[in-house]
Amino acid sequence: MKPQNKPIRVPIMPKASYYILSDSDEDSRMRFACRLCEKILAQQLSVFILTHSESSAKRLDQLLWSFKPDSFVPHQLLGQMPAAPIEIGHGDQLPSHRQVFLNLAGALPDGALAFERVVEIVIQQEEILAATRSNFQRCKFAGYEMQTQKTPASR
What we know:
The chain is an alpha/beta fold. Helices cover 30% and strands 25% of the residues. The chain is built from three helices and seven strands. The protein has helices at 26-42, 54-66, 126-141, and strands at 15-21, 47-51, 75-77, 86-90, 100-104, 117-122, 145-151. The protein has a seven-stranded parallel beta sheet with strand order 3-4-2-5-6-1-7, with helices on both faces. It is globular, with a radius of gyration of 17 Å. The termini are far apart. The mean pLDDT is 90.
């Protein structure tokens, strides 16, 4: 019998990336999220951004349209049509894909650990620092490859 040449699927080790900003304001965090989404989109990946409230989701939705005049970052609030590679949600909402989970909500929900990549943007605000420290430990315990990157203050 002739052997079949089936592609071998190599499991991908999930990654958790922590971008540590020296800023302490939420606007810097949101602007950094927009720039990061643009870079992730260039890698042809789908992104789900979890925010802590519906108003934060709508604010980020508006910022993604206007953060950079010469850029187009296709996105939508979760559940809207037509589909887009970047979806924004809040509460316990989750998308159908499991590629990139960008957490802007605080505590990392259990569903986030099913994604190939978890991304956190850390700002120098005590509540955010405490939540992201806890999330870091959860990802590490779950077997994620951990990455941290310090970024300079925005101007």
